[in-house]
Structures are given as C-alpha cells and as structure tokens.
Amino acid sequence: MAKIKIIDGYEFVEYKKDTYPEDEVVQRSASFYGWMDKRRTVRDFSDKPIPKEVIDNIIKTASTAPSGAHKQPWTFAVISNPDLKKKIREAAEKEEYESYNSRMSEEWLDDLRPLQTDWHKPFLEIAPYLIIVFKKAYDLDEKGKKHNNYYVNESVGLAGGFLLTAIHHAGLVALTHTPSPMNFLTKLLDRPANERPVLLIPVGYPVEETYVPKLERKPLDEVAVYYE
Hints:
CATH class: Alpha Beta
Largest sheet: 4 strands, antiparallel
Strand content: 15-25%
Strand order of the largest sheet: 3-4-8-7
Number of helices: 8
Number of domains: 1
Number of strands: 8
Low-confidence stretches: none
Mean pLDDT: 96
Shape: globular
C-alpha cells in the first residue's frame, strides 16, 4: 500500500516512477519517437467495428492528462448511432462547403491543395465512432452555480494529444476535424451551456489500401531551441 502524507490537512500519496539506466533511457526515447512518427492523419476509414471497451480505455487515457487545478475541464462525447452520425456529417459538410467556397483565403486553399482535402466528409458516417472533445469553460454544480476552471484551452489541448496517442497505441487511426463554426455539435448533442466543442475525431481502422500525402516533418533544428 502506498504511503500517505498529510500536508495542511490534505492527503498526498507517495509517488514512484520506473527509472532506467541511461542507455535504456536513450533507447526507449528513440523507440517511442520512431513509433509515434508513424502516426498519420487518415481520411479513408473502414466500417469495421471496434469493441466499446477500447473506446472507454482510450478516453480514460486521455483523462490522465494534466489540467489546471486538476479541474479536468473536458467532456468526450462518443457517437456510434448511425442516424446521429449522418446528421453530424450533413451539418459539418454545410459549414465546410461555406469555408472552402467563401471563408478560406487563397493562401489557405493553396496550403491545403497538396493534402487534397475538400468539403466532402464521408468518414463522419463511415468511421464506427466519432469522439467529440468539448471544453468546459466553467463547471456547474447541482444547483446551477458556476465554478471556475483554469487554463481550459491548455488543459483540453493536452487531453487531445493524449487521446490521439492512445488511439495510435491501440492500432487505430484518427483525424482531427475542426469544422468552423462548430456550434451545431452543441445543439445536435444537446450539450449544456458551459461546454464548447473543440475537436471532432473519427476513430477506426483504415481501409485495406490507404494512401496519405507524402509529407516530411520539420527537423529538430527547426522546432527546438536549446539554451546551454
């Protein structure tokens, strides 16, 4: 049983973390990078079913992310109902059509051209699950009283990263879809006023023959600055 220490009347439990020899630390960090570097955004989903337990575990993993004052200001809405997925697709495509045809600048459209994306989003119906990440701007207690949350955007962003990593680890693929505006999701899912949709993530297996754009990630010297 973990040791417990009382500090100012609050319980703290002893924390122990596995540590490794330096050469193994190097090997593990390189191995994890190599594995994560294989993660790609996929738009061609199979309708092959996924056990709900897998989705449960993925969401529980995402919820281990750090958050301001440990408020955990997120809700993960999980959609598998075909009729609801169809409604979400129709509403998302309506917004995406407007974006591609009037909202996006020419520079934005040029940047998207190598990815060959457009306003059609069939994956929203095909993928067995949609996970919609909502941020909670504030909490509401059972009496409807508001309670502050802190660093909400940062906290939910971290949880989204954990979510994508967990999906990749399970052998599944995902796409981070952000139709703008996203208010239609709040209405379709009847979410409370304190929640705002942030990410719409289809989750599933890729089709047997899947192609993704040939891209290169920025090298280390373009993404990191060291002060020694």
